[in-house]
Amino acid sequence: MSRTVREDKPRAWQRMLSGRRLDLIDPSPLDIEIEDIAHGLARVARWNGQTLGNHAFSVAQHCLLGEDIYCRQVRSAETSGQLAALLHDAPEYVIGDMISPFKAVIGGDYKALEFRLLAATHIRFGLPAELPKRETGNIKKADRTAAFFEAVGLAGFAPDEATRLFGRPGTIDREDVAALLEPWPAAKAQKAYLRRFTSLLPAD
From the CA atom positions of the chain, what is the Rg in Å? Predict the structure, then answer.
């Protein structure tokens, strides 16, 4: 006769398609796989899905856009910085994409969870758990520029409103990143994310 095993406290882990069991409270770098990240991010919608197009604009595509912008803004960018930019929203493959207003409501607990997951991801792929402040600032700048283009091009924001929220995009023009603003099917976004990740790995 089978018996159901009950845990003493609420489950705080998620089973991944790779078979890994990722603990959200104490994530181990050993339980993080890029295939799980790419699969998850390609299926998480930015802007709560409130975007134009036949497909959701995924977090995977946002990360590709952000990393492209980072490379345009940081001309002497090292490969490690590019990789960090590509992975900047990696925790969302397991916790989803919370819009900024909701993050503000939840407060510090969400940010602490997000930081632990990102730190474990960095360690898994050979980056420091916490990036230097200058690098973090450069990635955040690229992230906000990406958000500006997404807001105006996909999410129905007026340019003035997007500028107030995310700042001006500087010298980068929408045409520079237009190809990355066309929402893709999940499978295409997943493959593109994995392809870019692989291109940033050190050569053997």
Answer: 18
Residue 39 CA to residue 36 CA, distance in Å, equals 5
Sign of the dihedral through C-alpha 19, 23, 24, 27:
negative
Q: Which residues lie closer than 8 Å to 111 by C-beta, 6 or more apart? A: 103
Average pLDDT, rounded, for the chain: 91
CA–CA dist 75, 201 (Å, integer): 19
Q: Please give the Cα distance from 190 to 192 (Å, whole number).
A: 6
pLDDT at 44 over 50: yes
Token match 């490379």: residue? 71
CA–CA separation, 35 vs 30, rounded Å? 13
Measured in residues, the chain has a length of: 204
So what's the pLDDT on residue 1? 47
Res. 98 pLDDT band, cuts 50 70 90: confident
Which neighbouring-strand residues pair with 13? 23
Contact 62, 89 (CB under 8 A): yes
The token pair that represents 124 in the structure block: 């898994």
Say which residue, 118 or 112, is predicted with more confidence. 118
Q: What element of type H or E holds 147?
A: helix 133-153
Give the distance from CA 128 to its chain's centroid: 17
